[in-house]
Design goal:
2 domains; about 180 residues; about 0% strand
């Protein structure tokens, strides 16, 4: 046992010297040289990752976030434009209906006026035809009366010639016949 005790004592002594050499970190089982080397390695790895991994990833995420934001803004603008276009379309349709109704109403009014004008023209033409017919009938009547008078005078002259045979001359007979016919009409 003594040897074991001696070895333990040697180990404790060496540990005490190592602790004195490394300070209080040695008691915790930390070697200062290894710790500093690991700290330096960690810093280098951190800088490398920062420079070539973290910064590009952050830029990529920022760019993606910006694009998503722009897309949302564009979608909102498109939606607003669609709503405005729908309102405008409804307004155009409403205006077109009003114009169509006005055109139809104007056409109805024009057709009614044209109908009235055509009826007035037709009435005027009918009146002219009737008046012309009356004039023509009156002229034919007068012509017939003149012919009838002439025929009656001729008949009366022939009758009176036969009756009177030679005692009355032709001029007197015609005058007498005209007087008789005038008294008949």
């Amino acid at each position: 046992m003594s040897q074991e005790v001696q070895m333990a004592a040697t180990a404790v002594t060496e540990a005490a010297h190592a602790t004195e050499a490394t300070g209080g970190l040695g008691m915790l089982g930390i070697n200062l040289k290894i710790f500093l080397a690991q700290l330096l390695n960690f810093t280098v790895v951190l800088l490398v990752l920062w420079k070539w991994a973290y910064t590009p990833i952050v830029k990529l995420l920022d760019e993606r976030s910006r694009k998503v934001s722009e897309s949302l803004d564009q979608a909102k603008n498109v939606e607003e434009r669609v709503v405005l276009l729908e309102k405008e379309q409804k307004e155009v349709i409403k205006q077109a209906k009003l114009e169509a109704e006005a055109i139809i109403e104007e056409a109805r009014g024009g057709a009614e006026q044209q109908k009235i004008a055509m009826l007035a023209t037709a009435k005027q033409e009918v009146t002219q035809v009737v008046q012309q017919g009356k004039r023509q009938l009156q002229a034919e009547k007068n012509l017939m009366l003149q012919e009838a008078r002439k025929d009656i005078i001729d008949l009366a002259i022939q009758a009176s010639e036969k009756i009177l045979s030679a005692s009355v001359n032709e001029k007197k007979a015609q005058a007498i016949a005209e007087e008789v016919i005038e008294s008949l009409t």
